[in-house]
Design goal:
Layout lengths: L2 H40 L8 H22 L7 H6 L2 H33 L16 H20 L5 H7 L1
Helix pairs in contact: 1-2, 2-5, 4-5
Length: about 170
């Protein structure tokens, strides 16, 4: 692997770690917001309207960030059962197809999620003082990350069988 590829891989390793950390933070915040919702509703008898839209927004980011990291780890869009059933000489083609499918899905989510986000930005979110377009920000950002990670795998990914990679290391 060339030095530039190693640098790119290290940079995207760091990005994937940050993205996974943000997904975890989003899940923790979502749980805290839902706990506040339950407490406010049943103890204070005053249910806040901002908790549901904010929890859904955080869930969207958590899901899309997790999916992006799974694409980078090649556990999402991977066809693993079929891939391992095929001869080693055919596995590279299936890896390429799965990486292309992930790139196309990421590009579609980025484009369409971005369009929806822009179209809905001027409207206020029901229950929260935020732009309604934020509902689609997770799709847009997550799609961009999926596209980035799948392109990285297409350009720098290893097409050999896992056993061959382990034997070389």
């Amino acid at each position: 692997m060339t030095e530039s590829r190693r640098g790119l891989t290290r940079a995207l390793d760091g990005l994937a770690t940050v993205v996974l950390g943000l997904a975890g933070v989003a899940l923790v915040l979502m749980a805290l917001i839902q706990a506040w919702q339950v407490f406010a509703r049943y103890v204070l008898n005053d249910s806040p309207g901002w908790t549901e839209p904010l929890a859904l927004l955080l869930m969207s980011f958590a899901v899309m960030f997790g999916a992006a990291v799974a694409v980078r780890r090649e556990t999402h869009f991977a066809f693993q059962t079929l891939q391992h059933a095929l001869p080693a000489k055919v596995q590279w083609a299936l890896k390429s197809v799965s990486r292309l499918i992930a790139a196309a899905a990421g590009a579609g989510l980025l484009w369409l999620g971005g369009s929806l986000m822009i179209d809905d930005w001027a409207v206020h979110m029901a229950g929260a003082p935020l732009p309604a377009g934020l509902k689609f920000a997770g799709l847009c950002v997550g799609g961009g990350l999926i596209l980035l990670f799948s392109i990285e795998r297409l350009l720098t990914g290893d097409y050999r069988a896992p056993e061959a990679v382990e034997a070389e290391d």
